[in-house]
Amino acid sequence: MKITVAGAGYVGLVTSVCLAELGHEVICIDIQSEKIEQLQEGYSPIYEPELEPLLQKNLIEGRLYFTTNPRYAYTHADVIFIAVGTPQHVDGTANLDYVYDVIETIAVHIENDVIICTKSTVPVGTNEKIKRMIDSKKLPQLRVEIVSNPEFLREGSAVVDFFYGDRIVIGAENEESARVLENIYQPLKIPIIKTDVKSAEMIKYASNAFLATKISFVNEIARMCEKVGANIDDVTYGIGKDQRIGPYFLKAGLGYGGSCFPKDTRALMHTSGSLGHHFELLEAVIKVNNRQKSFPVVKAKEIMPSLKGKKVAVLGLSFKPNTDDIREAASITVIKELLQEGASVTAYDPIAIKNVKELFGDSIDYTDEIQTAIYHADLTIITTEWEQIKQFPLNLYSEYMKEPKVIDGRNCYPLEEVQKYPLLYVSIGRPTVVKTLTNKL
Ligand code: NAD
C-alpha cells in the first residue's frame, strides 16, 4: 500500500519507519527541511530506542522516503496519516493550525481517492470539520474518507509500542475505510477496536485524562503518607495488587509532563467547558500536577535557610527516561524556581542537554556526568528516574557533595539502601532519612 505520513516528529517518524518495516511503501513529509535532510541521511532527529537502525534498514531496502515536497508526498497516496503537532494555545485549547494546514495542502494535491487518517490528538468533532474542509477544496470527482486513528505510543518505548501496543482504535464513518486501516495493522495481531469517529476521538482524551488522574491521585496519597509517616511505595504496591486497580501508573513523583498529558487534559477541560460541563475532577488533577512540580524547591526551602548562592545539581532533564523530550518536564519548573531563589544550577542528563540549552542558555551549567553535577554541590535534586541515576552509587553523594542533601523527586533509591549512607534524603511520600552529615570538602 502507498502510505504518506504528514509530520516527522515522535509519532510521524515512528509510524513511518514501522509501517515501512511492515512492508508498505512510505513517504514521510515534514515542513522542516533540516529534519528531512537528516532523515534522508539515515539519522534520527529525535532519540527513541531502536528507531535509528530500523530507519536505516528501511531506507536501504527502498521502502521509506523523506520529503518536503507535497506534490511528491500526496498526489498518489492510498492512505495519508496526519501526525503533525496539536500544541496548546495559551488558554489551553488545542491549536489545530498545523492539522488544517496539512488538510489544505492535501486537498490541492491529491489526484486519486484517498483515506485520510488522523493520528494527531484532536478534540471531538475535529475530524468532522476536516471532512467538510477537504470536501469543499478537493476536486469534486475524488472520494476522500476520514478515519480517526488516535495514537497511544509512549515516548521512550515508541517502537515497541507500535509493534506490541495494547489496542488500535479505528473510528470510521463506514466499514469499507475501517477495513483498509484494519488490513494495514492486521499483521501486528494487536486487538483492534472499531468505533464511530467521535468515540475514537474521545477514547484518546479519556485515556490520557484517566492516566493523569491516576498520577495525581497517587501524588495526593503520597502527601498523606508524608504527614502520617507511611511509605507510598508500600501503599501503591498494596493497592496495585487489587485487580480492579492494577499495578500500573501508580508511581508517586513530580507529576506528569511531556507533550501529551498536560495539553490533552487542558484541552479536554476546555471541550467540556464549551459544552457547558464543568469537569471538576479533571480540574483538580491538573492543579495537583502543577503543584507537584514545585515540590523539590518547596522542600529545599524547608531544609535550607536560603538557596541564594547555593550550588544545586539537578539530575534528569527529560520529562521521563529514555527520551530527549523536555516538553513540560518537571526539571524546567525546578530550574526556573531555583534560579528565582538565586541558586546556581548544574544540570545533568544523558541525552536531553541540547534541548534544555535552548531554554536556559548560559544561565545554568550542563554536564552528562553525574559526578561533575554533584561535585561540591549544596543540594541535589533528582527530577527524572534515568537508569544512570538509579544505578549511581549512594556513597558518592557524601563523597562528592559539599553537604550530602538529596531531594529525590522520583523515589529512585530504596529507603533501606539510603539508610546505610550519611545523607539527608527527602523523597516523595516516604519518611525523610537523616543520617549524620559529614563535611567532606
Ligand atoms: P512533534 O512536535 O514531535 O512533531 C510534529 C511534526 O509535524 C514536526 O516535525 C513538524 O515540523 C511537523 N509539521 C508541522 N506542520 C506540518 C505540515 N504542514 N506538514 C508536514 N509536517 C508538518 O509532535 P508529536 O509528539 O509527534 O505529536 C504529534 C501528534 O500526536 C500530536 O497531536 C500529539 O498530541 C499526538 N501524540 C503524541 C504522542 C507522543 O508521545 N509524542 C503520543 C500520542 C499522540
Per the CATH scheme, the topology name of the largest domain is: Rossmann fold
Strand residue percentage = 5-15%
Rg over CA atoms: 24 Å
Largest sheet composition: 8 strands, mixed
Q: Order the strands across the largest sheet as they lie in space.
A: 3-2-1-4-5-6-7-8
Can you give the helix content as a percent range? 40-55%
Beta strand count = 15
User: In the CATH hierarchy, what is the class of the largest domain?
Assistant: Alpha Beta
Give a short synopsis of this structure:
This protein is α/β, with parallel strands linked by helices. 44% of the residues lie in helices and 15% in strands.
Attribute tags:
44% helix; globular; binds nicotinamide-adenine-dinucleotide; 3 domains; alpha/beta; N-(1-d-carboxylethyl)-l-norvaline Dehydrogenase, domain 2; Rossmann fold; 7-stranded mixed β-sheet; 441 residues; 8-stranded mixed β-sheet; single chain
Task: Describe the protein in words.
The protein is an alpha/beta fold and 441 residues long. It folds into three domains: 2-195, Rossmann fold, CATH 3.40.50.720; 204-292, Orthogonal Bundle (N-(1-d-carboxylethyl)-l-norvaline Dehydrogenase, domain 2), CATH 1.10.1040; 295-434, NAD(P)-binding Rossmann-like Domain (Rossmann fold), CATH 3.40.50.720. 44% of the residues lie in helices and 15% in strands. The chain contains 19 helices and 15 strands. It has helices at 10-21, 33-40, 51-60, 70-74, 97-109, 126-137, 158-164, 175-185, 197-228, 232-240, 261-274, 280-293, 295-303, 330-340, 353-360, 370-374, 387-390, 395-400, 415-418, and strands spanning 2-6, 25-29, 64-67, 79-82, 114-118, 144-148, 168-172, 192-195, 311-315, 344-348, 365-367, 379-382, 405-408, 424-427, 433-434. The strands form two sheets. An eight-stranded mixed beta sheet has the order 3-2-1-4-5-6-7-8, with helices on both faces. Helix 6 links the parallel strand 5 (114-118) and strand 6 (144-148). Helix 1 crosses helix 3, helix 5 (97-109) packs parallel to helix 6 and helix 9 (197-228) packs across helix 11 (261-274). The chain is globular, with a radius of gyration of 24 Å. The chain starts with a strand and ends in a 7-residue tail after the last strand. The mean pLDDT is 96. Nicotinamide-adenine-dinucleotide (NAD) binds next to helix 1 and helix 5. Residues 6-12, 29-32, 35, 83-86, 98, 101-102, 119-121, 151, 153, 155, 259-260 line the site of nicotinamide-adenine-dinucleotide.
